[in-house]
């Protein structure tokens, strides 16, 4: 190659390199300035419930940490799959996040055909928290302990029913888990969401419910129901006189509703790290800790690595329970 020809090509190659660098700058600059606009938190449930309150609380506090506004978008439907699907298909820029959990990433995908893969189509941001299962009964119920419930069921398999908010709900899954561990027949009575199962429990038409702490703590504080056992490793500070399932003789019972934050898959590592860091900081704020505990939620770490390892295990565990119990969607 002649010297003149080489000199002719050098400016061309330099121009091409500069052009490539210029084309890459907007993406790098956008990631470096993240966030530069409000972040949307998609809650796959109606407004007013525990998931909605969690989304609004976490969204507000993360926005304050990141220096931006937050918007909550309620997208209920299809066992929480509708909202999750919207986030799975959203641009992977960190501006659309999912307040997901047990339903979106462990239960509903085994019950209803999904348009997303709960493991592959999301980038874990961090665990918001978990709410243990609490076995509750009516105040005038003859059952004073889990042992009383089990003994009654063994005497008459048709006598003891447990209610839930629907097939495949956390309440139903918890009940089936307890039935399998206790090896006792109990009849599941599914309700079509709402509070009908609670109304029937208080009215004595349903003997027991394996409810989440988010749902049952307000009832317990109001003196409307009585707790038999809590599905936590230790007794809850709010319920010091209520034994754990392990203390009641069922140490294998481990089941909690859990809540976590997800971004679409392929969200950049830098953006994901910023979001995870903001979540972790928010979860350490005394005001957030207090409000989460008021909701019956034990605050999580906000660590992405922890959530990334947890989701596949939980997906397989809950899927196995659904298969073994032959649970079908409503």
From TrEMBL:
Keywords on record: Signal
Coiled-coil annotated residue ranges, if any: none
Entry's transmembrane regions: none
Signal peptide: 1-30
Pfam family, one: TctC
Family listed: Belongs to the UPF0065 (bug) family.
The protein's name: Tripartite tricarboxylate transporter substrate binding protein
Organism field: Comamonas brasiliensis
